[in-house]
Amino acid sequence: MFQKQLSRFFTFTIVLIGFTGCAQSSVDSTEAAKRWDARYEHCTDIARANTTDFPDNAWFDSLTVESKKSVIGYLYNYNQRICTAEQTEQLRSAIEYDNNSELNSYYEEILTPLDVTFADRLQGIEKSEILKIQAQYSEPFSIRHVLTQLELYPKR
């Protein structure tokens, strides 16, 4: 009887150790950072190539020039973050697991929620309206094209 319980205990322990290994990051933080950088570069290439015009939207048209720029900046970053979401979570997990404060500082802006980063710039702007536009314009996009199209690009 004791031997049977001991056998179950060892089996349980081995299974538990296996699951614990699965919970740990499969790559170290340096490798996760390289993967994130590569994915970000890929998403940026998509954005550069995407010169689809910004959708017509009465709510957006009613905003001030500065608010329009903030909304476009938010959408650009939102779409980039969707494109890099998997690699960002791997990076966050690996940095936490490795306790890599250097990479944590370097990628701090990327790891900070977008709503926190844009809180001041979007004050008084209805996020639900931004998300309606995002549903129509959900791919990484050329911010330069959009700013030029909407005549918001700085004049030289």
Task: Describe the model.
This protein is an all-alpha fold and 156 residues long. It has one domain (28-149). Helices cover 71% and strands 0% of the residues. It starts with a helix and ends in a 7-residue tail after the last helix. The model is unreliable at 9-25 (pLDDT under 50). This is Lipoprotein.
Q: Uncertain spans, ≥5 residues at pLDDT below 50? A: 9-25
- Helix/strand structural class: mainly alpha
Helix count equals: 10
Anisotropy-based shape: elongated
Main pleated-sheet profile = none
| Number of separate domains | 1
Roughly what percent helix?
over 70%
Sheet-strand content, in percent, reads under 5%
Radius of gyration: 22 Å
Total DSSP E strands? 0
Rounded mean pLDDT is 88
Distance between the termini: 86 Å
Order of helices and strands, N to C? Answer: HHHHHHHHHH
Give a quick rundown of the structure:
Helix content is about 70%, strand content about 0%. With about 160 residues, it is mostly helical. It starts with a helix and ends in a 7-residue tail after the last helix.
Highlighted features:
156 residues; mainly alpha
List the helices and strands and how they pair.
Blueprint: H1 2-23, H2 29-49, H3 58-61, H4 65-83, H5 85-98, H6 101-106, H7 108-111, H8 114-117, H9 127-136, H10 143-149
Helix pairs in contact: 2-5, 4-9
